[in-house]
Amino acid sequence: MDIGVISRYKYETNQVLYIPFEFLMLPFFYLFVKSYLNEKINANDKRYLFIPFAFCLLYLLTTNSINNELSIIKFLNLIIEYISIVFSVLVIFLVFRVIKIYESNHLEYSSSYVTIKTKWLKRFLYTGLMLCMLWFLSLNLFGHLFKKGFYKIYPLWIGMSILIYWIGYSAILQKHLYKERKEIRTLIKEKIKSKSQTTTKKNNSKLYTEITNWILENELYLNPNLNLDIITKEFKISNSYLSQIFNTHSALNFNDYINQLRVKEVEQMLKNKDYEMYTILAIGLESGFNSKSSFYAAFKKFTKQTPAQYKKLVQNS
User: Fold this and answer.
1) pTM of the model
2) Cys bridge to 221: 17, 64, 196, 261, which one at CB 3.0-4.6 A?
3) Looking at the predicted structure, is the pLDDT value of residue 26 above 70?
4) Under CATH, what is the fold of the domain 195-316?
């Protein structure tokens, strides 16, 4: 339009059919998120999400087939733009709600499934809210700065293009990481399936030994949500008393003790040729770390080298 291929008048009077893609992007993202989180997509989801698109397309087809005053068309199109913004924000909050429900249903660690990461989805939603704000500004502020052409919405178009490519890249990356973690967990299950999952009774004189044995026998350090509360609930002691036990009988506090076990698990996997096809990050997450930063920091603390350096060293030895 800005290079003269399509006249501004034809666009504003809807003589050229415009597809209201702004009513499609977030509904499709909503369906993608539900599919990604393995949540059921019901018929109502599809029906209510795409009704605005259908009505908008019907409006465009109607105004495209009749002659109307330019001022009226511009006013109605502006109304559609504002409705699009409100609709987009509403869908973003619906996606937030889907993610929140998923997270609340997967608080507890389970060895039977790999929990899907949701942080990257939230980043997209925050970026989407920023684009909606930019969209609003393009309608109310940028129009006064750019009197001709459609330059006022170029930042919005560029932002949306970047976001779409970003979603595609991250989705592929996260799917690959999720697949690797599932395969690693299967290998771990095969390794420990012959072990008994028994716990020892409380014995005040040997409580530290019992606690550490319980952690080791059940490989609780593989649980990224492991904390003092889980241990104290099992042995019916207080958090302060548990911390005191570790400070008395170990050179490490509770968190460092658990992270050391996780680092040893990573070392064993990096030495094992069965895991050489998997990324270091996937191995670290399946060893109990809940983020890349905590994994790399702990590994460097206990080995004095990065995971990549360690992997290269053991492969060359």
Assistant:
1) 0.56
2) 261
3) yes
4) Arc Repressor Mutant, subunit A (1.10.10)
